[in-house]
Amino acid sequence: MTLLLSCPDRKGIVAEVANFIYKNNGNIIHSDEHRDDEMKIFFMRIEWDLKNFRILPQEFSQKFKKISRKFRMKYDLKFSWNTQNVAIFSGRQTHCLVDLIFRKKEGELNCNIPLIISNHEIEEAKISEADFYFIPKTKQNKLIQERKELRLLREYKIDLVILARYMQIFSKNFVERFKVRIINIHHSFLPSFKGENPYLQAYQRGVKLIGATAHYVTEKLDEGPIIEQDVVRVSHRDTVDDLKRKGRDLEKIVLARAVRLHLENKVLVYKNKTVIFD
């Protein structure tokens, strides 16, 4: 069991939470804390073994209420036995999709991938055992097609949506239904070069570094809480195609890292930022 919490910082938080677990016969496996000095907010991730733990999962909120109220905590409880169902939305470029499929097959990602959706007919989806749906979109049919997608997400009991270079913008309704459960890979080092053609923007600006950013999707394009980023050096000799080639490698790595962190319950979102626990 994993507990992710945040609250105004004060003395005694770690001691009270740890003692609560100890008194109920829980064995702490991992514990990590962070204090935001500017906001005076305390963050914690604590994981413990449920063997012989005296509190049933459905009773936890009631038993923990005294501590959570005392410290004005916001918290989320995660269970290690819940393997998440993931849907991948892919665009025409499938390098991120293929990478995620193979990482899942190699056991690097602890999840199920029962569903793949694309607005293009992509052959690469066939290497997965997931069901594939081709749902083309235009400005005229976008909302109608989104309703189809939402029905599929409900039918397949999807917990997490991954946008693997899926170059479409979702409606406010779609995003709100999967708040902090949609991960996108953007092909630039945000907040630089938002929107379309970031590699062309980077080339025209003459940058010496390009990057990739994995973030949660919000209503505001490319402005959601950032989960993971990385960069690679480029030079004046590199063409736009060179930047794209180098960028594709980064995109795969950064997206996979972000997905793994989410699946392992190591991301805590606060305002529009994230705390990433080791």
Largest sheet features: 7 strands, mixed
In helices, the fraction of residues equals 25-40%
Give the full name of the CATH homologous superfamily of the largest domain.
Answer: Formyl transferase, N-terminal domain
Strand order of the largest sheet: 7-6-5-8-9-10-11
Give the overall pLDDT as a whole number.
95
Distance between the termini: 16 Å
Pattern of helices and strands: EHEEHEEHEEHEHEHEEHEE
Q: Could you say which overall geometry the principal axes of the C-alpha atoms support?
A: globular
CATH class of the largest domain: Alpha Beta
- What is the tally of helical segments? 7
Sequence stretches where pLDDT stays below 50 over 5 or more residues:
none
Q: Which terms would index this structure?
A:
7-stranded mixed sheet, single chain, 13 strands, 278 residues, 30% strand, 31% helix, Alpha-Beta Plaits, alpha/beta, 7 helices, Rossmann fold, 4-stranded antiparallel sheet
Brief summary:
With 278 residues, the protein is of the alpha/beta class.
Give a verbal description of the structure:
With 278 residues, the protein is of the alpha/beta class. The chain has two domains: 2-78, Alpha-Beta Plaits, CATH 3.30.70.260; 84-276, Rossmann fold (3-Layer(aba) Sandwich). Helix content is 31%, strand content 30%. It is built from seven helices and 13 strands. The chain has helices at residues 13-23, 60-70, 95-105, 142-155, 172-177, 198-205, 240-263, and strands at residues 2-8, 27-36, 41-49, 74-78, 84-90, 111-118, 131-134, 160-164, 182-186, 209-216, 226-233, 267-270, 273-276. The strands form three sheets. The chain has a seven-stranded mixed sheet, with helices on both faces. Strands 2-3-1-4 form a four-stranded antiparallel sheet, covered by helices on one side. Helix 3 runs parallel beside helix 7. The radius of gyration is 21 Å and the shape is globular.
